[in-house]
Design a protein that fits this description.
By secondary structure, the chain is mainly α. It folds into two domains: about 160 residues, no CATH class; about 120 residues, Roll (CBS-domain), CATH 3.10.580.10. Helices cover about 55% and strands about 10% of the residues. It has eleven helices and seven strands. A three-stranded mixed β-sheet has the order 1-2-3, covered by helices on one side. The protein is globular and about 70 Å long. The termini are close together. The relative contact order is 0.09.
Length: about 375
């Protein structure tokens, strides 16, 4: 993955959480502790904060459940899911999921919000029932109420009709069913998301000017999320059209440096830099391709560890970083790279290395097709 922290593997799906969740968990912990203090002041500060932390972790669990609902429904509809990365609100990679039919797209899109609404529908009445029992249980009831309320908010926000939210995918599915053209439907969804985003930005500014600064900033941020998501969708659609009909071989960089599995990183780190640098190198032994080492992986490792770390220690290997064939569809390879967060993948034919497909080589192909010196590479799968 391109970022975040791996926290679990559920149903064969790796769960990663972006660093933005450190702030969100702290915020929910604060809300939960304040709720506990308001309902059960006699418990003391330590217990209030403990309850707040439990509430935050419970909310994180429900957000993971929201995203797993998307993934499991997607699997049943023929859309593979190997990883989930949680952003500030929900998953960061909704654009990476391409369903084969409009009804499948719709089913995948609504699965998460429906589960969040179900959690809210169960949690809020349960909180009221526990609260009626009184005593120390009122603090627990308050925590359950916070989790239920946050899931209600999550469901409502995710159904706003703009990408990258689930509601944007609902719009795309409906437009796809009506027009029978997925490209046109994606353009419609992007347009609706952009208009809604601009409207929310305006509302946020108005609220901030009206002394509702906190609410205004939240609405403004949501508007920004929708406008940038719509922009990403438009760029992604344009890149997909440009690459349609191309193969992996068309974007393969054939003359690439090779590294041995026992070489320490400090001996080849300079290969990633300069005008002739490449973001991903093949690891080979006796002309056999073992895996690849990407620049992002080394950035996370840190330069101080280069001298003590071998290529074999950090290389990505099949089946995760599987080898590509020259005749494969290039857009499918781009989506795989985005989904996995890799800088590049090895191209192999009859067991021999042909070269590497990297973000730079894809960018070179796009420049050749458009004449644009700086076209945006396809990065729609990872926010």
């Amino acid at each position: 993955m391109s970022g975040g922290i791996a926290i679990a593997r559920i149903l064969g799906i790796e769960i990663r959480v972006s660093y933005a969740w450190a702030f969100l968990l702290a915020l929910v912990t604060l809300v939960g502790s304040e709720q506990a203090a308001a309902t059960s002041p006699a418990l003391g500060t330590v217990f209030h904060w403990a309850i707040g932390l439990v509430v935050a972790l419970a909310f994180l669990a429900t957000v993971i459940a929201h995203e797993l609902a998307h993934a499991t429904v997607g699997r049943r509809r023929g859309v593979p899911a190997t990883s989930i990365q949680l952003g500030f609100i929900g998953g960061l990679a909704p654009l990476a999921i391409e369903a084969p039919r409009p009804r499948d797209e719709l089913a995948i899109a609504v699965a998460g919000p429906v589960l969040s609404l179900a959690i809210a529908a169960l949690a809020i009445p349960a909180a009221m029932a526990v609260g009626f029992l009184g005593g120390g249980l009122t603090a627990i009831a308050g925590g359950i109420l916070v989790v239920g309320g946050l899931n209600l908010v999550l469901a409502v926000l995710s159904l706003l009709p703009g990408l990258p939210l689930d509601g944007g995918r609902v719009v795309r599915a409906l437009a796809w069913a009506r027009t029978h053209d997925r490209d046109r439907a994606s353009a419609v969804a992007a347009r609706v998301g952009r208009l809604l985003g601009f409207a929310l930005v305006g509302v946020g500014v108005a609220l901030a000017l009206g002394n509702l600064i906190s609410a205004g900033l939240l609405v403004l941020c949501l508007g920004w999320l929708l406008t940038t998501g719509a922009s990403t969708m438009s760029k992604r659609l344009g890149v997909e059209r440009l690459l349609r009909g191309t193969t992996v071989g068309d974007a393969t960089r054939r003359e690439v440096p090779r590294v041995g599995p026992n070489l320490t990183i400090d001996t080849f780190a300079d290969r990633y830099q300069g005008e002739d640098g490449i973001s991903c190198l093949p690891v080979m032994e006796d002309e056999i391709v073992l895996g690849v080492v990407g620049a992002k992986r080394l950035q996370r490792l840190g330069r101080r560890k280069f001298a003590a770390t071998r290529a074999a220690d950090v290389m990505a290997t099949p089946p995760a970083a599987r080898f590509l064939a020259p005749g494969e569809d290039l857009w499918a390879a781009v989506e795989m790279m985005n989904r996995l967060g890799y800088d590049g993948l090895a191209v192999v034919e009859e067991g021999a290395l042909v070269g590497m497909v990297t973000r730079e080589s894809i960018g070179d192909l796009l420049r050749a097709r458009t004449g644009d010196p700086d076209p945006s590479p396809a990065r729609g799968g990872r926010a």
